[in-house]
TrEMBL record:
Protein name (database record): SF4 helicase domain-containing protein
Signal peptide: none
Species classification: unclassified sequences, metagenomes, ecological metagenomes
Biological process annotations from GO: DNA replication
Pfam family name, one: DnaB_C
GO molecular-function terms, A-Z: ATP binding; DNA helicase activity
Domain SF4 helicase: 165-358
Amino acid sequence: MLPPETAEIGLLSSIKEPRDLTTTLRVGVTQELFLLYGDVFQYLVDFHPEYEGQLPRREDVEAMFASTDQALKFTEGGELKFYVDELLALYTARQVSEAVRGRFGEGATRLSENPHEVVRLLLSDLQQLNTRRSRNVSFLDKDALQRLSWVEERVKASQAGEILGIPTGLKIFDDHQQGWQPGECGYIIGGKGVGKSWLVMYQACVAYRYGKRVMVLSPEMSWEECSLRVDVLLGCLMQREFSHEGLTSGKLVDLKAYQKWLTDLTSREDFICVDSADVGGGFTLASILDLMEEFQPDLTVLDGIHLIRGQAKDKGWEIIKAAADGMKAAAQRTKSVMIWTGQVDKDSNKNSGEPAISGGQAAYSKAAVEAANRVISLARDPGNPLRRTFKVPNNRSGREFLTKQRLAFEVDRGYIEQVDVEEPATFAGMPEV
């Protein structure tokens, strides 16, 4: 970890635009987390709404605090997320140190007298510490002005024709600027072999191309299998054409072009893939949350929520509900996006040519539906093997789409795109601006 002074000045210096300040507030940064420059941060927070969403000039801030114990000189700053993580780590380290001193300091139970009791009490203290840091509470009155910045960002994006959030890759959402929002969860349901894994991997590639960090959790496919799908999907998005069959069979591959493609990919480290081998043979809610904490993705994909393991005594729907609720809470806490796939019930599976018209047609009843903001049901197009149809039976952020939407689904070359958009007369998700 960085020294507190370096981390705090680095964070303050990385707040260069109003949206940077909004981002820090969204992830839970408060004056309390600072050891040295909390008043400076609070000044930025108070200045922002009072002066129509602007930030003060740096030289004015330096002059204001020059004669105090919080005098500082701004630097060039850097990646905001890095310094936020450092600040949170330092704050957590201080809390842990205080908890340990409280149990081993003067007046506390002596370790040599009752070591088991000391350990029990210390574990209790640390558990309470973790619980407090995991809460996601906002005072809707006191913190009301934070929402002004969020809405201002939406207005500016709307006026500029930009997508709000992470693009979904589906025109019915993206054409209305309705990308995946922080804390949102999506659920893709469909029959066996209909292409759910291809669609969710495509959405991960769209997010990655948009500059986001993505993580794919694959209970069934190995990371090697996933990587070849990414090559054709992401390659198609970036005007590089490969054949999935060619890559898997080793036939008809232009090795020079493929090597150039792979070399270009090495410039980033933002596409994480984890298969079951990494987590001891099966994903659990705990292992998923640990991976989200370790890699901090903007978007996490779980290809098969019905494949999560739980306690032996738990029923299938109980395991799925607990997993969906837990991942939803994690997405909200980390301001990230979570998408999982799952199957439809037996009756719907018999009619693979018709997308489900209700989230209730998902397998295991509504165990994972209620935690999802959007449910996308996928089906084959009986008249064209290179097409798929889908509907949106659940959509909390806008209108449901119960008319069939069509996808070009030429997965061998990685081409997935919505065609022939059929949308309702109005779209409830976007206010008039």
